Amino acid sequence: MLRSMYSGVSGMKGFQTKLDVIGNNISNVNTVGYKKSTINFQDLLSQNMSDSGANPMQVGLGSSMATIGVNHNAGSLMTTGVGTDLAVMGDGFFVVKDPEAAPGEGQYLTRAGNFTVTADGDLVTAQGYEVLDSTGNKINVAGFDSFSINRLGEVVRKQADGTEDNSIKMGVSAPENPSGLRKMGGSLYQMTNIASANGINIQTATDANSEVGSGVLEMSNVDLTEEFTEMIIAQRGFQANSRTVTTSDEILQEVMNLKR
């Protein structure tokens, strides 16, 4: 009876965490570049009741969380018509840098390409982080009449006389294991040794087997139909485990009443 009660409690804790994950996904359904999280469970150790038979007799002790992973499948593209709204079409990430960080530090990855241009001509994120080119330097378009970004990730800067300069290329990084990246908030990811043993490797979009879409944004890959279905499953699982706890309590109460 006590084992069943503790098993029910472990199940309730697990499904509560699952609801937390689902709630966070739903709240970011319209967040640019957001990647949904998923949770998996595993059983706990089993207690051996007897080894005398042909097969071991064991009673499980509940469940626990195995992983909370991130689904990096591409989200749908939304056309905005804004030239500084970019999307990576492939497995790569844009590379950005905290302008207040020391040299060689403060670099992050992002799929949110809702960039803007500052008064100084720097291409930055919504939080003011500098967008880096393929050489690791910030992208600056000052001194030019206009600019555009093509599918190869080339920043085509144009002078008033029609002269073009496409020497700057968008920096893209494609870690070997994107699921190992650490979420930092603000649609930013921090590199970890699990994601890539060599750190952030900045490449051109072509070298990263990706393309850059201009005038479009990658939206969240959250599917509300799936999330609401998982929410129902989590709710019923929580209720079933809570019923296990209350039933175990009722049986214990019956045992206590045997003295009367």
From TrEMBL:
<comment type="similarity">
    <text>Belongs to the flagella basal body rod proteins family.</text>
</comment>
<dbReference type="InterPro" id="IPR010930">
    <property type="entry name" value="Flg_bb/hook_C_dom"/>
</dbReference>
<keyword id="KW-0969">Cilium</keyword>
<keyword id="KW-0282">Flagellum</keyword>
<comment type="function">
    <text>A flexible structure which links the flagellar filament to the drive apparatus in the basal body.</text>
</comment>
<dbReference type="Pfam" id="PF06429">
    <property type="entry name" value="Flg_bbr_C"/>
</dbReference>
<dbReference type="GO" id="GO:0009424">
    <property type="term" value="C:bacterial-type flagellum hook"/>
</dbReference>
<feature type="domain" description="Flagellar basal-body/hook protein C-terminal">
    <location>
        <begin position="214"/>
        <end position="258"/>
    </location>
</feature>
<feature type="domain" description="Flagellar hook protein FlgE/F/G-like D1">
    <location>
        <begin position="87"/>
        <end position="155"/>
    </location>
</feature>
<dbReference type="GO" id="GO:0009425">
    <property type="term" value="C:bacterial-type flagellum basal body"/>
</dbReference>
<keyword id="KW-0975">Bacterial flagellum</keyword>
<keyword id="KW-0966">Cell projection</keyword>
<dbReference type="InterPro" id="IPR001444">
    <property type="entry name" value="Flag_bb_rod_N"/>
</dbReference>
<protein>
    <recommendedName>
        <fullName>Flagellar hook protein FlgE</fullName>
    </recommendedName>
</protein>
<dbReference type="InterPro" id="IPR019776">
    <property type="entry name" value="Flagellar_basal_body_rod_CS"/>
</dbReference>
<feature type="domain" description="Flagellar basal body rod protein N-terminal">
    <location>
        <begin position="5"/>
        <end position="35"/>
    </location>
</feature>
<dbReference type="InterPro" id="IPR037925">
    <property type="entry name" value="FlgE/F/G-like"/>
</dbReference>
<dbReference type="GO" id="GO:0071978">
    <property type="term" value="P:bacterial-type flagellum-dependent swarming motility"/>
</dbReference>
<dbReference type="InterPro" id="IPR053967">
    <property type="entry name" value="LlgE_F_G-like_D1"/>
</dbReference>
<dbReference type="Pfam" id="PF22692">
    <property type="entry name" value="LlgE_F_G_D1"/>
</dbReference>
<dbReference type="GO" id="GO:0005829">
    <property type="term" value="C:cytosol"/>
</dbReference>
<dbReference type="InterPro" id="IPR020013">
    <property type="entry name" value="Flagellar_FlgE/F/G"/>
</dbReference>
<dbReference type="Pfam" id="PF00460">
    <property type="entry name" value="Flg_bb_rod"/>
</dbReference>
